[in-house]
Specification:
The structure holds 2 protein chains of 2 kinds. Chain A has 21 helices and 28 strands. By secondary structure, chain A is of the alpha+beta class. Helix content of chain B is 35%, strand content 15%. The longest helix of chain B has 17 residues. In chain B, strands 2-1-5-3-4 form a 5-stranded mixed sheet, covered by helices on one side. The chains are: A alpha+beta, B alpha+beta. The interface between A and B is large, with 58 and 58 residues. Bound molecules: FE2/S2 (inorganic) cluster (2 copies).
Amino acid sequence: MAVTKLFGAPIKRREDPRLITGRGNFTDHIRLPGTLVMAIKRSPHAHARIVRIDTSKARVMRGVVAVYTGQDLIDKLAPVPCAWLVPDSDLKVPTYRAVAVDKVRYVGDAVAVVVAEDRYVAQDALEAIEVEYEPLPAVVDQEKALEAGAPQLYEEVPNNLAFHWKLHSGDFDAAWKEAEVRLSRRLINHRLIPTAMEPRGALAAYNPGTGELTIWCTSQNPHIHRLLLSAVTGLPETRIRVIATDVGGGFGSKIPMYAGEMIAAALSRDLGRPIKWIETRQENYVATIHGRDHVQYVDIAAQRDGTITGVRVRAYANLGAYLSTAAPGIPTWLFGLMLQGPYAIPVIHCDVFGVLTNTTPTDAYRGAGRPEATYLLERMVDLLARELRMDPVEIRRKNFIPKDRFPYTAPSGLVYDSGDYEATLNRALELVDYDNLRHQQAELRQQGRYIGIGFSTYVEVCGLAPSQAAGAMGFQGGLWESAIVRVHPTGKVTVFTGSNPHGQGEETTFAQLVADELGVPFEDVEVIHGDTEMVPFGMGTYGSRSTAVGGAALVAACRKVKEKAQRIAAHLLEVAPEDVVFENGRFFVKGAPDRGMTIQEVALQAYLAWKLPRDIEPGLEATHFWDPTNNTFPFGCHICVVEVDPETGKVTFLQYVAVDDVGNVINPMIVDGQVHGGIAQGLAQAVYEYAAYDANGQLLSASLMDYAIPKASMLPSFSVDRTVTPTPVNPMGVKGAGETGTIASTPAVVNAVIDALAPFGIEHIDIPLTPERIWRAVLERSR
Amino acid sequence: MQITVTVNGVTYTHDVEPRLLLVHYLRDVLNLTGTHIGCDTSQCGACTILLNGKAVKSCTVFAVQADGAEITTIEGLARDGQLHPVQEGFWEKHGLQCGYCTPGMIMTAVDFLQRNPNPTEEEIRHAIEGNLCRCTGYQNIVRAIQYAAEKMRSGS
Ligand code: FES
Ligand code: FES
């Protein structure tokens, strides 16, 4: 049997046949007889005391089965948990009730729940519930929330300050004193809304006869949801089954434990019937997490030759009204540890203030902390280049960590695994024909046309690991991944992964890995994920970790299987195991290639067990829990070329080149797709998307009409290329590709627009760079 | 109210509430869950179907308005186990990631290519403006539709 190597092949996805024919298995597609529909009444006020809730009218409506208020649920549900308890930061975790009891703290906070026979009746019943509020002054802005006299969200959180986290490495004061150039800026990294196209939802089915709860829900991490559901409902973990096979995008927003899923579980138990809750898009906008939202004060110390000698950051992170599951970890560890970026900056001094405000809770949104660090650094590097009249390329080269310094211990304590930053820059310059482009720019300026060239040279941390580090960071879980590889008597293979891909295509890439490892046909490998009853405890899909960590677990399990198969083969071939060679799915005697047997034949013998020695157990499968030794650090260079019309502020994209290094690539077609989608989201932060609140805490961009996720006509085509620097951290040398695009693209676009506007003396405009903001900036400078 | 509709070649008669949306009729009454719901303001296009041959967002139509109509949903697009060229294009060119926008995107593209068999990239991007995808950045969706256009032209 000829076996071709699948690692590196752009194999078409096996997920697709079901998805392009309308046979996906999304949560809202699951039907169970007797299902009731649940709907949540949400607060229209950002901050108010609940004076009275009258549910009497709703309760008597035809088709309404039950109505619950926060008070009714106190004994049925523990508060919504926070699972990233950042140490040494004086962290305060205020009580977060699934349904508010005394006070509402943001527009969208749950105040009552209806259960009805159908969705239309449930909506009518929501309208019939009367809630009397005593509105309180609200605070939306994180800096204002810290001021004396600001509205207080909680008695137990003075000044709305949930934590103050510090990372001080090296002597910044000395660096600042000795610096030849000093640069200080206030930067805003505004709030975004993840907007997965599938809204969140759950179908919870509690069986009073068995005491078991099965819950289908939109989850990136089913086992974590099972664990947290167990904690909040009091049901043992062993009686809860979480299923999330097809999930319609997550981008971080389907990691947390939310009120909606918790309530559905509790009410199914209470009523003994299946309960379905699917959020509307409007609910998604107010009650699913938001991301980013930093105000950053940055100081850069440098020498005249462009060498950066220190970075100091004071960041104010808006956490929203409650602490979402991973919220404290995002603006601290995932932000602060990356503040040196790809540069050999010796001194990092970072203070982050986590602030509670009357807004939707924030948590991990694609990139989660690293985009905030990367935008800050890439913007400052450009400003420094401008100050020193240096080319943005030269200043980057000057500061890059050279390729012979890996593994590199950064001042933040991270150990960068491998890298060759200049190689990605050089390749990108070549692709855009940089010198020529600068000439063109100069010529066009003569004609009154403004094109700009923007750079982003980034490094990011992904494959989040290892577990020891997780513990030190206060993450309430390990950061390994699980796998089972089961070879059946026919030689077909089922693998079970604790990762839970929801668009990233690992059903395909994992099958490629396993087929290669075991030398079996791709078609013979089934990949199972997203069902806690089938898969061993797994950490899930986020932080670009599935392939690097979940894939490594599979490879390790495959190797255990092979080792056992080799012992069986040796026994049957009557030679010592060391004398057996494995190649292309076949075991044979060293030096006698025709004396051998295929892995399928070995599998059959393993199950027949007729001829196995007593010290070999029957069966052929292995489990592995892979705990990596380190994170992985993808990097790259993105160059964006735009034209800006100073009369209208309109930005036109002329070129976008991405050269990423994500280590070895298993399926280049899928990695390209991840990069495209990632760039789209980061580019949108630069010029389109903005979660806007008014001063009273009303979310103004609470629909797809008002929140500008890009349409096809708003995006250019991207040219994607790669260099390959494998990581030593896992056996495949892969790093992770889910977030690079988002992390890199925002500063590339912004730097391009600012570069285009250089003739107007414009150095900086806060994002998003909407036509209005650009137009105003030009107008101000031309006065 | 009683309605009679033909969906993917099968004729159904049902009593429905006047306020029932067509998308809910398809999903909840006929169990055709391939037609997705992504919003409540008719922006996302996840619910797009063919109503009498034209792409329509089924969340903007009441079931009663479809009385007498001929409807094709994503489940009815492949014929005799043969994928429609647009479906094939999405598979070939990696035009989907999570697949949530995909049924609606495909139905819109089917309708569009009937009207414009040889579109430019710009025309394609314009034609799918009413369908939002959060995963792909659209580049491979454009390529998928180009693939289908070419295949359909050479096939006819
Ligand atoms: S569901 Fe979004 S347009 Fe119909
Ligand atoms: S593929 Fe996920 S929304 Fe389009």
